[in-house]
Amino acid sequence: MSSVISIRNVSKTYASGHRALNNINLDIQRGEIFALLGPNGAGKTTLISMICGLVNLDEGEIVVGGHDIKKEFRAARSQIGLVPQELTAEAFEKVWNTVIYSRGLFGKRANPAHIEKILKDLSLWERRDSRLLTLSGGMKRRVLIAKALSHEPPILFLDEPTAGVDVTLRKGMWDIVRKLRDTGVTIILTTHYIEEAEEMADRIGVIRQGELILVEEKARLMRSLGKKELTLQLSQPIQELPATLANTGLKLSSDGRRLMYAYRTQENDQHIADLLHQVHQAKVVYTDLHTRQSSLEDIFVDLVQEPQ
Asked: What is the rounded CA–CA span in Å between residue 73 and residue 60?
């Protein structure tokens, strides 16, 4: 899979002296969904804005679709569709007209058939003559996507695409994003909803304090950094952990009714079987057991928490 965006040694320091990005290196592959995660102020928006040409590049190099963002700005920018977080649009304009206008901004010839296809794909065709002020928040978000796709870009940036959208519409938006990926569009996603990245992304990038601290395939990330927690519900509460279990890693809950054991996802089933055998040998009786696997959100929180 070839890179459609290449970022080399990119840093950004604002006039205030704030260093928003520090030596970022990243390749985004053609046709993938890449989720960029980070707490507020981590540098996500600055990085996206630099790739899209909205913030000046101070240090380093960014190449988009084979075009240097500084030397060939127009060619590079034409490769990108950007869906901002803010629902900014002309309230009294009609859906059809605002999408057509966005295509014209990139110097593209009129192509009504393409615009019709976009609106149908986004379930907006029946509202093509509606004024934007009459649309729901979810529909306005879809109009922003239609505008971003109007000039047929191979790369789509989605900045918090489901902010303020209810759960049902959020899942519908996920389906739209997957369909776009299936047509070959590369999608870069920033989101505060970690389950959104867990549901859709092929790869995850985590940025903290202006530094890219991790880039990994989602499945591999979940395996390598994921944890599981085994909980044993005891038949009777106990006052303290038996001495024979002191070095097993088992923890006793404050009410004495549960034993908990946290372990890495990679640990094999035999290890857990041995642990349960030790519990039996210690004459600790449990009535139920269950396991919980850490989510991407758990991993994210561990990664971005401030060092003590």
From this structure: 15
Residue 74 and residue 187 share a domain: yes
Whether residue 245 is found in the same domain as residue 184:
no
Q: How far apart are CA 156 and CA 32, in angstroms?
A: 11
For residues 214 and 72, state if they share a domain.
yes
3-class SS of residue 240: coil
Phi-psi region of 300 (alpha: psi -120 to 50; beta: other; left: phi over 0): alpha
pLDDT tens digit sequence for 230-286 = 888 888 889 889 888 888 888 888 888 888 887 766 556 677 788 888 888 888 888
| Calpha distance 151→148 (Å, rounded) | 7
Residue count of the chain, please give it.
308
CA distance 155 to 79: 6
**C-alpha of 107 from chain center:** 31
DSSP 305: S
Q: What is the spatial distance between Cα 190 and Cα 194, in angstroms, rounded to a whole number?
A: 10
Instruction: Let me know the angle formed at the C-alpha of 209 by 205 and 210, rounded to the nearest 5 degrees.
Output: 65
In tens, the pLDDT along 168-222 reads 667 777 888 888 888 889 999 887 667 777 788 899 898 888 999 888 887 777 6
Tokens 């040998």, residue located: 281
pTM: 0.73
